[in-house]
Design brief:
It contains ten helices and eleven strands. It has helices at about 35-40, 60-65, 90-100, 135-150, 170-190, 205, 230-235, 250-255, 265-275, 280-285, and strands spanning about 5, 10, 25, 35, 70-75, 110-115, 120-125, 155-160, 195-200, 215-220, 260. A hairpin with a 6-residue loop joins β3 and β4. It is globular.
């Protein structure tokens, strides 16, 4: 079959072999280069040119960190609409759209499994679900992860990706800050390790509660982390913020983080840290 025909000295592909390139390329926010999408996907959603970390969904994160054979738990919780909230569209419709888009009931996944030879409890937030906002279900799911860690004495890891508390649930959302923080205080009393991983972005009530309470607070490169956004801060204080303000590297330099770890190195970093925290260093060596 002839794949091309000539018309007025121009080569034109026939209709049954239309060349489609839409969606095959991505413009990197870091280096501003156009990158082949398959290359980014093969590199764990990290730009192969500059190392910019694209967003990584919750299921991908669980598969990256845990050994095969892990179990998803606490997946049956579903948000209600206690305030019958409506802005551009009713909250109930926003929930249904987010559930259809992500395949999740809410912006969180809990899993139990192993990182290398260490049993762990893992909570991962899903930014694609209403901006990873924390409502009653997210708070309760994390609280159950805390309870599971307390019952098994296995370390807890929470991966944050959130714009903050979910305004559509009002005070029911804000209550989760104290609820989860109280559970983490119990873990601290029992000396059970808790590692917090912050990804781009981590903001609002999530930063103001559990994401900054880890025994070890780490972040991915370039992650934007804070309470209020830089634009809001500049408008409030009427000053220009320093270069890189609220990025993970800036926070590490100023003592707000313990480490910045690239995505491809995260599992190995966690494995080594967990062995040290749980006293398994000698067994591994």
């Amino acid at each position: 079959m002839t794949w091309f025909k000539r018309d007025d000295n121009e080569i034109i592909p026939p209709d049954d072999h239309e060349v489609r390139t839409e969606g095959l390329w991505i413009k990197c926010e870091g280096c501003r280069k156009t990158v082949w999408k398959a290359d980014i996907e093969a590199n764990l959603q990290v730009c192969p040119n500059c190392g910019h970390h694209f967003k990584f969904n919750a299921r991908q994160r669980v598969e990256l960190l845990l050994e095969p054979g892990y179990e998803l738990v606490d997946m049956d919780l579903v948000s209600t609409d206690p305030l019958e909230f409506c802005d551009l569209k009713p909250y109930k419709e926003q929930l249904k759209a987010a559930q259809k888009k992500t395949g999740l009931n809410d912006a969180i996944i809990n899993a139990v499994g192993r990182i290398d030879d260490v049993d762990v409890v893992l909570s991962v937030m899903e930014y694609g679900f209403i901006g990873g906002s924390m409502g009653a279900v997210v708070g309760e799911t994390i609280a159950r992860a805390v309870d599971r860690s307390l019952a098994t004495r296995n370390p807890l890891i929470i991966v944050s990706a959130s714009g903050g508390a979910r305004m559509m649930e009002g005070i029911a959302s804000l209550m989760q800050l104290a609820k989860v923080s109280a559970g983490l205080a119990r873990m601290d009393d029992e000396k059970i390790p808790y590692i917090s991983i912050m990804t781009d972005p981590t903001f609002g009530g999530v930063t103001a509660s559990f994401s900054m309470l880890g025994d070890l607070n780490i972040a991915e490169p370039g992650a934007l982390i804070g309470f209020a956004g830089p634009r809001v801060i500049e408008q409030t204080i009427r000053q220009k913020l320093p270069e890189g303000f609220q990025r993970s590297e800036f926070l590490l330099e100023h003592g707000f983080l313990d480490a910045v770890v690239p995505r491809k190195e995260m599992k190995a970093y966690l494995a080594e840290t967990l062995r040290w925290m749980t006293g398994k260093v000698s067994q591994a060596s």
